[in-house]
Amino acid sequence: PRKLILDVDTGTDDAVAIMFAALHPGLDLLGVTTVRGNVDVEATTDNTLRVLDWIGHAEIGVFKGLARPVARAGLPGQRHYRRGGTMDPHGGALPIPEPSSTHRDTGAIEFLVETLRAATEKITLVPVGPLSNIATALAVDPSLTEAVDEIVIMGGGHAVGNVTASAEFNVWADPEAAALVLSAGFERLTLVPLDATHQALIGQDTCDALEKLGTPAGTAAARFIGKRIAAYDEITGGGTAPVHDVVCTAYLVAPEIITTTHLPVEVDTVSPLTIGRTVVDTRPQSTAERNAHVAFGADAAMLVKLLLATFGA
Ligand code: BDR
Ligand code: CA
């Protein structure tokens, strides 16, 4: 199985990604690091423990990470969601029992640095929250990239923003960290932006099918995705929602789920209007370094199939 570390800000979509990574037989989840993002880091850690306990995988270590961005204390100051209301797909604790396990004493940065330094085979990094932990680990030791075969990031948007008109939340919430990670020189960096995740929309019919599986993961996924559908439906009226983070873990076992183009990507860290924007250079004549495999498309039907198979077993 492919070894990976998930870095999360759990979060309803993170929760689905965690269950997928813990349960898919093709994946070996070495540990989960938490960061503030959708909610504060105490809550993302508590939510992460809830999820692993609920599916019977409390043995997978949870390592608490950073409570703030690397360079600016204020972000995310206010989410553009109405906290706790139905518009907020992450509001409050996840609707599953409180965890009985606790996070490890080792912090997220220490875990990342030690695990990557000690690795005898390459490890895949999958950050699906703000990139504060990953950037800080790389600041401690830039050569950590050598232990990583691929980093798969949920973040950014080329034609789509969510937290602002031009920025996606994970990148916007710690733009300096994202800039550092994008330019760190990873062997392969795959960026799964909103352009892709907004194509892998999940509807109530899939939630019903997940619920019918009768497994803890199926029941929880139905609840979490149902919460997302309720929130997105208020905005779009479409009866569906993206489940961003799970597209990254699904990609690890089914690379054809996304279609990517190898392009130069930089993060805007200076403009008040477009801070946190991922600037994707699609010009054929560009001579800038192509640092990211950017996903512009994702296959919703394939994602549904993978969710049902993985959570039904
Ligand atoms: C991303 O931001 C987080 O809030 C979600 O969990 C997802 O990773 C979407 O912009
Ligand atoms: Ca997330």
Automatic annotation (TrEMBL):
Entry keyword Hydrolase: yes
Gene3D superfamilies named among the record's database cross-references: Ribonucleoside hydrolase-like
Keywords carried by this UniProt record: Glycosidase, Hydrolase
Domain Inosine/uridine-preferring nucleoside hydrolase residues, every copy: 4-303
InterPro entries recorded: I/U_nuclsd_hydro_CS, Inosine/uridine_hydrolase_dom, IUNH, Ribo_hydro-like
Protein name: Ribosylpyrimidine nucleosidase
Gene that this polypeptide is encoded by: rihB
